[in-house]
Design goal:
about 130 residues, alpha+beta
């Protein structure tokens, strides 16, 4: 996988993420190639997953910092991808109606998930809605 990123001066660099060599310990290789940088690192698959989760969290925080004012919606109107307003990043993974209630599964920026049951008419304050 190759991704175009920029250095601090705006010059493009190709970042490649590939499986490490077949022999030796299981590793993931991270390579930077471009006119301003040539570097390589490797890490365990667990560290690669932690890096991926950290990047997702940072991306969502960057997007949230640019979003407008928080909105309040009814629990029954939550959509997958809605982001809860608060100190910790919480994203709606799924919403399932259960009579007068809704069963909401949340995920954190760190990849943990949990479920909560709300009255369908309960107000939920969101930082951002991914869909109108």
């Amino acid at each position: 996988m190759s991704i175009e990123i920029e250095d601090t001066e705006g010059r493009g660099v190709a970042l490649e993420v590939v499986p490490g060599p077949a022999e030796g310990p299981v590793r993931v290789a991270i390579l930077l190639k471009g006119p301003s940088a040539h570097a390589s690192w490797s890490c365990s698959p667990a560290a690669a997953r932690e890096l991926a989760a950290a990047l997702v969290g940072a991306a969502e925080e960057a997007e949230n910092a640019r979003s407008g004012e928080p909105v309040t919606v009814k629990a029954g109107e939550l959509l997958r991808g809605d982001v809860r307003d608060g100190d910790r990043l919480m994203t709606v993974e799924s919403v399932r109606p259960q009579g007068e209630n809704v069963h909401v599964t949340w995920t954190s920026g760190g990849g943990r998930s949990w479920s909560q049951v709300y009255e369908a008419g309960a107000d939920i304050r969101l930082r951002r809605r991914l869909r109108p």
